[in-house]
């Protein structure tokens, strides 16, 4: 799809119930841009801001008979509308707990939401594409990782408790004093940098050595004599790296102690990183641009 929709399955555990609406456009209001809308449940309070993460459930039909998206949970980052009658305009009008229906232009939806112009070619001007949406929650993007952590801990309470105990024991055995961030990440600086820090989306050049708590090395750029270069803060690396590397400045060295849920989760990675494994990364932020 051409719009960058953000899907986080760890938070999409419950299927929301939609409130039905009458077919056609009877009873709908229209915004200045041409988006037709009809609210079924309206609450009070704040509405989402641009950049907020929207946790919602949706369904898309054409003429009430063809189901293009079955009732399902979803998540996106709220963006500025990209075209007249953009669904984003409607979502930006909703409070937590609200449910509403939106009638959109099929050509625009096919292009920007489905990324499929052939879909638009199947229908004419008299056909009605409707989205039924219920807002479960919304929050600033920086809270996304914390929400993910909460969901994972609830899903794996015993494994989470064990992993936390193992991390605390490792700190005690090795006389490490560190304070976790809100997500549970620990960072210990070992050499200062120049104070210049990367921003979200910057390409960083990093040397690293990755270990398990038992000391087993599973990967090292130093052994290859080749630092890794990746964009940071946009989900291209594990969450512990996205958060931790952005805490460092150019030239800085340190150690990231990453709980399993900010690493490779309940699946692990390859033959060397088992499920629910806490990780240690000795890192150096060489450069970024």
Provide the descriptors you would attach to this structure in a database record.
disordered N terminus, single chain, 20% helix, 289 residues, alpha+beta
What's a quick, concise take on this entry?
With 289 residues, the chain is an alpha+beta fold.
Topology:
Blueprint: E1 29-30, E2 36-41, E3 53-62, E4 66-77, H1 87-91, E5 99-104, H2 106-112, H3 117-121, E6 129-139, H4 144-155, H5 157-173, E7 186-191, E8 203-212, E9 217-220, H6 221-224, E10 228-231, H7 239-245, E11 253-258, E12 279-288
Antiparallel strand pairs: 1-2, 2-5, 3-4, 3-6, 5-6, 7-11, 8-9, 8-10, 8-12, 11-12
Walkthrough of the structure:
The structure is a single chain. This protein has 289 residues and is of the alpha+beta class. Helices cover 20% and strands 30% of the residues. The chain contains seven helices and twelve strands. It has helices spanning 87-91, 106-112, 117-121, 144-155, 157-173, 221-224, 239-245, and strands spanning 29-30, 36-41, 53-62, 66-77, 99-104, 129-139, 186-191, 203-212, 217-220, 228-231, 253-258, 279-288. The chain has a six-stranded antiparallel sheet with strand order 1-2-5-6-3-4. Strands 7, 8, 9, 10, 11 and 12 form a six-stranded antiparallel sheet that branches. A hairpin with a 3-residue loop joins strand 3 (53-62) and strand 4 (66-77). Helix 4 (144-155) crosses helix 5 (157-173). It starts with 28 loop residues before the first strand and ends with a strand.
């Amino acid at each position: 799809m051409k719009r960058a929709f953000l899907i986080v399955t760890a938070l999409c555990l419950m299927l929301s119930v939609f409130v039905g609406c009458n077919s056609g456009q009877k009873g709908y209001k229209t915004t200045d841009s041409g988006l037709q809308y009809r609210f079924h449940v309206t609450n009070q309070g704040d509405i989402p801001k641009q950049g907020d993460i929207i946790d919602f459930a949706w369904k898309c039909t054409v003429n009430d008979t063809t189901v293009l998206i079955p009732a399902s949970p979803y998540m996106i980052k709220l963006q500025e509308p990209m075209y007249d009658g953009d669904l984003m305009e409607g979502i930006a009008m909703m409070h937590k707990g609200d449910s509403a229906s939106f009638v959109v232009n099929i050509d625009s939806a096919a292009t920007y939401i489905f990324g499929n112009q052939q879909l638009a070619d199947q229908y004419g001007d008299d056909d009605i594409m409707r989205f039924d949406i219920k807002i479960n929650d919304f929050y600033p993007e920086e809270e996304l990782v914390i929400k993910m952590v909460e969901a994972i801990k609830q899903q794996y309470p015993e494994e989470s408790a064990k992993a936390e105990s193992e991390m605390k024991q490792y700190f005690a055995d090795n006389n490490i004093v560190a304070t976790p961030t809100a997500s549970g990440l620990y960072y210990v600086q070992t050499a200062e940098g120049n104070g210049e820090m990367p921003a979200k989306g910057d390409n960083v050049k990093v040397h690293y050595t990755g270990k398990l708590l038992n000391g087993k090395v599973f990967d090292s750029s130093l052994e290859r004599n080749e630092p890794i270069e990746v964009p940071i803060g946009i989900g291209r690396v594990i969450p512990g790296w996205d958060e931790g590397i952005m805490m460092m400045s150019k030239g800085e060295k340190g150690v990231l102690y990453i709980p399993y849920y900010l690493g490779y989760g309940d699946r692990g990675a390859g033959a060397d990183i088992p499920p629910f494994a806490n990780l240690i990364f000795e890192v150096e932020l060489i450069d970024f641009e």
